[in-house]
Every structure is written in structure tokens, then in C-alpha cells.
Inverse folding.
């Protein structure tokens, strides 16, 4: 009898865990706006790092526009707004909010649910990273970097991440948003939280939000 009760309790616990994991749903994004914005020279003049953010979240449209500017498709052949060595397109963007973590699906223009929970504090050493509405985590999928040596993978992943991060900086300057790029605080813990395979390497993190007034 006790064995049966324990088995039932285990089944219920497993079911409860599965339900919690399934609470985080995929998120469809609105079509990004690809026109408008400030002139390039003005953006370069206004581009800066900011470490103070308002608590309000970005709107779905702002998030869609941000992710498209970062590394979205801008040509019929599938190439992106950010350069990529050998067109590997190995840089992926994970979106972290207080509710959970999502992977940006560029082609489907949606966020794929990864894990429920608040992992923002793992993205940096500064206190503000755990409190802001949005942290982006850049990850290099090395399986896409065909015939590259480990040294080349590190170099190109870092370079391609820089292109994406600068796109985010310029978008934020255009839209009046605040941003700063950072080194993640605990890469192993963050990789575990994002369920990354060993072939996926975290490169940088970047906070984006409304400026604090």
C-alpha cells in the first residue's frame, strides 16, 4: 500500500513538473518595421552604454523591431542585417525576462520557449541585470561553423557577436532605448539554465530597456 502511494505521489510530482515546464509558451511576434529611424551619423553620435533602466517592459512591436535589427533577415536569399563569417549565421539570441527564457526563431519571427524561471541574475555581475525587464544572451552554435578550428570558432563567434551587438546599439539610439553589452557572470550556470548543448558557446549578454528618467 505504501509503495503504491509513493508511486502515485511520484507520478503526480512528475505531472506537476511537466505542467510547470509547459506554462511557458512560444510567443509570436508582430512583423518588424523595416523603415524609418534616424540618420546614421546621428545614431553614431547618440550611441552609448547605459546602466540605468526604467522598469517597464518593451512592447511586442519594439521587441520584434529590436530582434530584426539585431540579426533579422533583410534579403530574399535569407542573409541577415548583421555580417556573418562564411554566412554561418551561428549567433543565436536568447531573450530573458522575469518569466523565463526564449530563443529567437529568426525565420518564423517568434520566440521559442526554452525554460520557465527568472535567470536574469546569471547574465552579469552588476545588480541591475537581475532587475531589468529584458536581457539578451548571445550564443554561438559551433556546429554551424563548418571546418573551423577551435581558435577560429572563438575568433569568428566573437566578431559576429560584435556585429549583432552594435546593431542593437544603433537600434536603441534610433528608438530612444537604453542598452549596455556585458560579460555573463556565470556561463556554466547560464548555459545549464538555457539547456545549451556543449557545442553552443555563450559569448556576451546585452541589456535593453527604456531609459530611466
Amino acid at each position: 500500500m505504501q509503495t503504491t502511494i509513493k508511486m502515485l505521489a511520484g507520478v503526480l510530482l512528475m505531472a506537476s513538473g511537466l505542467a510547470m515546464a509547459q506554462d511557458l509558451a512560444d510567443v509570436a511576434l508582430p512583423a518588424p518595421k523595416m523603415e524609418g529611424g534616424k540618420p546614421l551619423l546621428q545614431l553614431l553620435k547618440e550611441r552609448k552604454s547605459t546602466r540605468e533602466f526604467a522598469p517597464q517592459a518593451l512592447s511586442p512591436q519594439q521587441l520584434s523591431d529590436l530582434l530584426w535589427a539585431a540579426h533579422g533577415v533583410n534579403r530574399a536569399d535569407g542573409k541577415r542585417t548583421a555580417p556573418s563569417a562564411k554566412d554561418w549565421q551561428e549567433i543565436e539570441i536568447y531573450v530573458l525576462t522575469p518569466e523565463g527564457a526564449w530563443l529567437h526563431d529568426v525565420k518564423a519571427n517568434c520566440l521559442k520557449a526554452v525554460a520557465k524561471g527568472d535567470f536574469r541574475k546569471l547574465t552579469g555581475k552588476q545588480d541591475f541585470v537581475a532587475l531589468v525587464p529584458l536581457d539578451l544572451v548571445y550564443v554561438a552554435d559551433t556546429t554551424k561553423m563548418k571546418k573551423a578550428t577551435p581558435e577560429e570558432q572563438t575568433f569568428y563567434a566573437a566578431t559576429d557577436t560584435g556585429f549583432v551587438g552594435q546593431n542593437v546599439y544603433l537600434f536603441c539610439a534610433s528608438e530612444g532605448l537604453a542598452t549596455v553589452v556585458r560579460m555573463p557572470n556565470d556561463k556554466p550556470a547560464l548555459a545549464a539554465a538555457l539547456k545549451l548543448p556543449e557545442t553552443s558557446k555563450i559569448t556576451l549578454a546585452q541589456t535593453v530597456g527604456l531609459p530611466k528618467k
Q: What stands out?
A: The beta strands are 27-28, 91-96, 100-105, 110-116, 135-141, 178-182, 200-209.
